[in-house]
Amino acid sequence: MKLREVGAKCFRTLEDLTVEFGYDFCTLSGRNNAGKTAVVTIIRHFLDDEDRPYLYGENSLSFSRDHTQWSSSDEMEISVRLELHRHDDAEVFFVVDKFAPTPIEGEIARVRLTETFYKSGERQLACRVNGTDLDSQNSSEIAKKLKSASNLVVHNSTSPNRRIYYLSGEMTEVLESHFSQEDRNKIADAERNLSSKVKNAAKQHKEELSQLLGRLGENYEVELTTLERSGSSRFPLNVKLNDKSVDTNLGGWGSGTQNRTRVLISVLEADRIRKSQSSESRSTPIVIVEEPESFLHPSAQAEFGKVLNNLSADFGIQILTTTHSPYMLNQTSPEANLLLERKVTRSKLKETERVDTSGDDWMLPFAANLGVVSDEFIPWKKIVGSANSKIVLVEGAIDVEYFNILRDKFPEIYALPADVEVVGYGGKDALKNTQVLQFMLSRLEKVYITFDLDAEHEVTTKLRSIGLEVDKHFCSIGIDKPGRECIEGLLPEAILRDVYAQRVDDVLALGSANSSAKKSAKSNLKQAALERFRNCSLNSADIPEMARLIKKIARAF
After folding, report:
1. Which string of b and e fits 194-227 if b means at least 16 CB within 10 Å?
2. Closest by Cα among 224, 218, 174 to 195
3. String of DSSP letters for 457-517
4. DSSP for residue 109
5. Tens digit of pLDDT for each residue in 42-64?
6. Over the chain, what is the mean pLDDT?
7. pTM value?
8. Residues of the chain with confidence (pLDDT) below 50
9. 488: nearest Cα among 537, 448, 534, 443
10. Do 113 and 37 form a contact (C-beta atoms < 8 A)?
């Protein structure tokens, strides 16, 4: 099942809002009280089982409690739009097909549920399947099935569902683990051997959880032990995490490790629900994780954000996170990051609006969560969208072209690994915002930064301030001679003489007081030098300075 849209009219701060979820890993950002919780509440209202109320019954909505305070409307409306797959969501798909006016053709059923709450206290539910409205009774049957079919797994990092047992003289935290119907039937048939049966059923769960934890790059082992249960179809398990020197219950670990482990258990539960059902009763839940960055250092947030993104793709499960962290955003598909903010009218916060994050505004959620001006992200768009984790950062597009020419024409000296990408960052000023730079570096496995020699003093100070070391992490490019303090300065003198001789007007314009003319002349000379290098006949012995640069960068990788 995939969530594609949440809508609301006069619901809390959502006076008139539609939010679309077009990706498998989506994030929802915004300041406190921006409306994120309201969106999650709507999703839970339609998909969470009413037999498992959360937050002491807050999932029971009403006009009197949830109607937008400043609105005079007598109605409140909430809706969700879902996509069901005939195979992956067979259990619900069967019911929808049964109650739809006409048989569903194809593999996808598009279901929209809308509930209207009236000031009088009445409420009305409506359902539309593939564009066709259903009557109230059939709508109700589909809504009931969506709630009861394990279609939603929720983890709130700020107030996790924790159960504490007092066992063997100590307080033990217990996490509930979902088992398949087949496992449950076996356990029911052999109640007197419950403990051993649960241990057998838990074996695969332990292995899968260990594999997920292994994605974090830390050496955890998982130990699961069973506890007495009280007739539930879920079985309490005591969780221990072990590394080379420590063996302790989950509750004894740091808050960040505890939170990541609980989040991964929630994702694993969704995957097991999807896999463990028979073909006719299969369900693929949606996973909601609220504030997964809780208690985590920024470097751990960056790592964990990648893990959740990858798990969503690997498991084929939609994961929606609410977050205040730029590190938890979807960095492979920035348009999947949704940003909410409150409109201000006469100095008072009013309705929630969705900020446009399409096109060139992709950086707004990153900037909002990092607390910087959005324009600071513009030079880094190529890096955010890159699938590569090993990158050489160069000043601009011309520098990228030099590296491409060296790779294609001089493979004998181009020693950079094949999986290293060369990306331009748009000039030295981009390196001066160390807050944004650190965020960019955090999402990559290895980065080497280059910049023109004439910017060495101001750039080196900034890079050293965030712990980077010369030659190991960065270097300047150029020769310490006037006009050669850049990548063109590494070219043979014969090429430079030819270019300058052919473009005398541009050379003279370099001394102009007109900054625009000076900038244009410099650009023309740089482009001419690049084309001359691209088309001339040279061998590697003719470009020793280029060879030394490549060798230095290659050593860093």
Report:
1. eeebbeebbeebbebbeebbebbeeebebebbbe
2. 224
3. HHHHHHHHHTT--BTTTEEEES-SSTT-SSGGGGS-HHHHHHHHHH-HHHHHHTT-S-HHH
4. E
5. 999 999 875 444 434 445 899 99
6. 85
7. 0.76
8. 51-58, 162-174, 176, 244
9. 534
10. no
